[in-house]
Structure formats: structure tokens, C-alpha cells
Amino acid sequence: MNTPSSFPLSERQALLLVAFLSVFLLFPFLGDTLFNTRGEPREAVVALSMLRDGNWVLPVNNGIDIAYKPPLFHWCIAALSALAGGVTEYTSRAPSAIALTVMLLSGFLFYARRRGVEAAFVAALVTLTCFEVHRAGVNCRVDMLLTAFMVMALYAFYRWTERDLRGLPWLAVGCLGGAALVKGPVGVVLPCMVCGVYVLLRGGSPVRAFWKLFLTGVLGLVPLLLWYWAAYREPAGGQRFLELIYEENVLRFTGQMSYESHVNPWYYNVMTLVTGFLPYSLLLLAALPLLPVRRLRGVRLSAFGKEGFGRFAVRLRGMDPVRLYTLVCIVVMFVFYCIPKSKRSVYLLPLYPFIAYYVAEFLLYLNRRRPVFLRVWGGVLAVLAVALPVALVAVKNEWVTADIFSGRHAAENAAFLVALISEPIGVAQILYMLLPVWCILLLAYGRTLLYGCIGMVWSLFLSLDAVYQPPVLNVKSDKSVARCVAMIVPDGRIYSYRVENYDANRLHPFTVNFYLGDRVVPFDSFRPESGMLLADRYALPSFLAAWPDYEAEMVYDSYHRSCDEKSVLCLFRFWKKGAAAETDSEAEEYNLLSIHRKRR
After folding, report:
1. What CA–CA distance (Å, rounded) separates 526 from 390?
2. What are the distances in angstroms from CA 255 to CA 249, 268, 475?
3. 522: phi then psi, degrees, rounded to nearest 5
4. Which of 84, 136, 315, 461 to pair with 73, CA 20 to 30 A apart?
5. Residue 138 φ then ψ, to 5°
6. What is the largest CA-CA distance in the chain?
């Protein structure tokens, strides 16, 4: 039930405001930043292969590679890209932004109708403006779409428990089917597990809950099973596809994969939640003295015996149902993701909307009872809001020079500085830079203290996406390398060779491959008579040792530290011994100096 509140907005008005703030923050600058990590182009190139080859079931990219995940996310990219005329950074990231917006609106409606409009409004804004969720919402990765489906399935499950599990939760079934088609069975198993634990805590029948949730889970798996069957029948499927599915869904969870993938200890999840909830975690850590420490005094170990747990269970059952369900979602999913050795911060994304609700309750408490904490936190945000534009002005006026950088990455840091200096600043960019500063004015009024702080966080993210982030991250991107390689090799295959862990993972120049239109293939799978080889600057001796019947020479040194390989990519010309090599005039076309002349 709704709790009394002096919040001035109606449910409809607050919903529209959440929608506006979400759309205005997420969508305008999706395409301004180039791909600068290997994960994004690796997903985008699958959609590129779908549109190029017409295979929407199990497309092949990088010459030999099949997708490691089910295709729903890639279908979304391909559909948007078909309408837009091609796969771009914007169309590749748009599904994540859409998924986050829909999830925020669903979460607002879920909590607004059960815990009050203001708490739901603050929870939606906290979810939108915490670091991990915002980063996932503007990335070309499957994690945000998976999170949206799982979270909305959990909302639908709660509505089902309100009906005492009558019938089947068809909305939850649809969301589970979507989650499974994004990343596999985990999108079905985990929400069903959460609902089952909640029903048992509320005193429901274990047998009835089990068979109903089992049937719901099976129905949710039907779309995934149909795709498995279709993919297995594809030419690139078969036994290889089954082995990949087994490794990704079973061996990843048991820690028995053929290669180490994001192996981290259990406390890694605690650390990533703290960093993922920035900047709100700073306020929460500062407010730790407000926790009821006195209640913990005198607690004995005997309290945790059978009788103690019995009393604890009774207290849990006495909690407000929505707050209990929110707590169960957090605890069950957190424990679940602590079990496998493979741990990543994005795995915990489904926890964020539920933790954000408790954070919202705490923020509202501070706003009413302890506003000094919000004022201090707001002061820290205000310093950051002023420091960013001042720093940019200092850089633009070249008060800061590249001489301050030294060490291994000095050249890259200097390139970041040059990019900020050379990036033009228009009226719109100035407005985005000053928007966080204007929010400082709201901090002067007690009534708008909380919303002034949240507004400053929102505007800081907006200014980072619009002004500060694109020129810096674009320096890291390998698109410039791909552009030069395309001038040397305008069409046809380009072969790749990787020295480190070559047999286990040969496919690493994902960013270059995307910007070259999926033309990069592993050398050993084709072994042509001659061609062009993309590899690390120091890979030539290793290549010639591995393939002694070939000769090769460098024709292009990018002098750019790859965002995928973390080493300098170069282009080599190779040919089999005894085969005719190019003439001097033909080889001259590959010369880097001639490329620069053409570009100028």
C-alpha cells in the first residue's frame, strides 16, 4: 500500500519525469564515443554478420567464430541497424539504453503502487545515476538487456504472489523467455529461485510453489530450446555448438572452463557493489555511524542457534511484503553470484534496482532527519561540478602541458590531453558543462536538498557523456588503425596472428575487425599463399618460427596501443617461400609515409 507523502508529483507526473530524465541522459550521446574496448565490437560484429550474410540463427564472424551467447541482443541491434542503414556505435548501444529505460519505468510503477510515489521516484533516479548501471546502459553488451528481463520477471513474480500463485504468471514467462534468449538458462533459473525462497519465507506450500515455478521455468526456456535446436542444425553448429553451450552454461558455473575467465574471489562482489554504486556509496559509507550499533551490544552466539533463527524467521515474515521481497532478491542473487569462480561486476546488475530502493529509503530518512550528511555529500559533488569545467578551461588554454606525463603510458596520456585541447566546444557543450554548477543552487534550500544532490549527479553524468568522455576515449579506439589498414588493403581478407595464448584465444583484434567490416580472420585457419597479417609489433619472429615455410616483412606500424591487445598493432606482408613477392613499386603502396600523404 502507498504510504502518506508530501511529494508534490502525482504518479503519472513522476513517471513522465523519470522517462524524460532517462531518455535525455541515455540517448543523445550514444554514438559520440567510438568502440574502445574489445567487448562492444565483439557483440556488434555479430549483428553485422547477420545483416551481411542473412543468417539470423548462428552467424559466423571473424571467419570462423560463432556467437557465445543466444541471439536476442544481436537481433535487436540488427533490427535497429537495418532501419538506420548500417551497424553503428549508436544502433549497437541503443538496445541497452532502451532496456534500462523500460526497466526504470517498470520499477517505478512497481514500487509507486506499493510503497509510495516519492520512494519509487528516488529509487528510479538512484538506479539511473549509479555508475555501474549507467555504464551498462550506454554500452553494447548483453548485460543490461538481460538485467531488464530478469528484473521485470521478478516484478511479475511478486504480482503473482499477491494472487496467491493462482494461474500462471504469463508476463513473467515472457520476461524469462527474453532473458534466456539473451544469455541462457541463468536468466530463468535465478528469478525462479528468488520467487521460491520468498514464497517459502512467507509460509507458502513448498510442493505447490515448486511445481508451479518448475512449469513456469520450463515455459520460459522454450524459446531458448527452439534456438538451440535451430542453431545445432546450422552448418556452423553441430557438436562444436553443443560443446560451446556446455562450457558457457555449466563449466563456467563450476569453474572448469578450458580457459580462465574473470576468476575472482567472493569478496570481489562486495568491492564491485561499492564502486558500482558510486557516488552514492560515498554517502552511505559516511553515514555508517547512523547504523543501530547499540542493538548489537550484548548479542550472544547462542542467539544464532535454532531458537534464534526461528525468531529471525518470524521477524522476516512480519516485514512488509514488498520490503521483504526486495531483500530476498538482493540476498539470493548476491549469494548465487558468489558461488562460481567467474565473477564480473556486470553479473550483479540485477541487484541494483532492489538495492536502490533501500538506498532511496535511507536518502529520504537523511533528508528528513539528518540533512547534514546530504549537505556534506552535496558539497563534495559541488567541488567536482566546479573542478571539471575549470580543469577543461586550463587544458584548453594549455596551462597544462604534456611534460607532466612520464612513464610507460606517457604518450597515450599526452594524446588524451591533445584530444581535449583540439576538441571544439560549442554553445551546447558549454551548457552541459555548466549544468552541474546550476544544480548547486538547489542545495541552498532544505526542501530541495535531496533532489539538488541527485540532480547534480545526473547532470555530472550528462556532462561527462557529452563533453569530457568522447575525446578521451576516442583516442583509445582502434578505429584510426582500421582506417589506415583499409587504405592499404581496401578489400579482401586480412589475417591475424596472436603470440600470447594463441591456441586458446586467437580472436582479439575485435575493434579493428568491426571497423574493417568483419574482414579479419585467423591465419592458421586459412594459411594462404600470401597476404596481409595483423599482429603485434614484436610478433614477427614468433610467426616465422611457427610457420617456417613463410617469409614476411612489416609494412605499417600504427604506433598505437590497441584497446583490444594492449600492445602496438602492425601490418605485415607475408608470402610462402619460393612464391613471387611484390615488386618494389607495389610494395611502395604499403609504405606508411605514402598513407600519410594520401590522408593529407
Report:
1. 54
2. 11, 16, 36
3. -70, 135
4. 461
5. -120, 25
6. 88
Give me the phi and psi of 572, to 5 degrees please.
-115, 145
Question: Rounded distance, CA 301 to CA 141, Å?
Answer: 45
- List of residues 6+ apart from 351 with CB closer than 8 A: 273, 329, 330, 333, 334
Integer angstrom CA distances of residue 593 from 412, 523, 584, 589, 590: 22, 27, 15, 9, 9
Cα(465)–Cα(433) distance, rounded to whole angstroms? Answer: 10
Q: In angstroms, what CA-CA distances link 191 with 209, 325, 353, 419? A: 13, 12, 14, 45
β 530-536/568-576 pair status: antiparallel
Burial class (CB in 10 A: 0-12, 13-18, 19+), 512: buried
Helices (H), strands (E): how many in the chain?
27, 7
For cell 587544458, name the residue.
Answer: 395
- Could you count the other beta carbons within 10 Å of the beta carbon of residue 547? 16
Structure-block grid coordinates of residue 335: 549469494
Helix (H, G, I), strand (E, B) or coil at 186: helix
Concatenating the DSSP letter of every residue in 428-475 gives: HHHHHHHHHHHHGGGGGSGGGHHHHHHHHHHHHHHHIIIIIHHHHHHH
Instruction: Give residue-wise pLDDT tens across range 375-425.
Output: 999 999 999 999 999 999 999 998 988 888 887 778 888 999 999 999 999
Residues 6+ apart with CB under 8 A from 438: 459
Residue-level length of the chain: 600
Coil vs helix vs strand at 83: helix
DSSP for 488-538?
HS-SS-EEE--STTTTT-----HHHHHHTTS-EEEGGGT--SEEEEEEETT
Any idea what the Cα angle at residue 459 is, between residues 467 and 120, rounded to 5°? 145
For residues 59 and 242, give the distance between their C-alpha atoms in angstroms, rounded to a whole number. 15
For 263-319, how does the pLDDT look when each residue is reduced to its tens digit (9 = 90+)? Answer: 888 899 999 999 999 999 999 998 877 765 444 444 454 555 555 566 666 777 789
Give yes or no for a contact between 276 and 352, defined as CB atoms under 8 angstroms apart.
yes
Which of 435, 434, 289 lies closest to 373 in space, CA to CA? 289
Which secondary-structure segment (H or E) carries 155? helix 143-162
For the cut 60, the answer to whether the pLDDT of residue 592 exceeds it is no
For the whole model, what pTM was predicted?
0.92
CA-to-CA separations, 112 to 37, 107, 324, in angstroms, rounded: 38, 8, 16
Grid coordinates representing 403 are: 611534460
Inter-residue contact 165 to 212 (CB < 8 Å): yes
Beta carbons within 8 Å of 3's beta carbon, 6+ residues apart? 115, 116, 119
CA angle 20/474/423 to nearest 5° reads 80
Tell me the three cell numbers of residue 268: 570481489
Per-residue model confidence as pLDDT tens digits over 338-378: 988 889 999 999 999 999 999 999 999 999 999 999 999 99
Cell of residue 399, nine digits: 596551462
State the Cα–Cα distance between residues 94 and 84, nearest whole angstrom.
Answer: 12
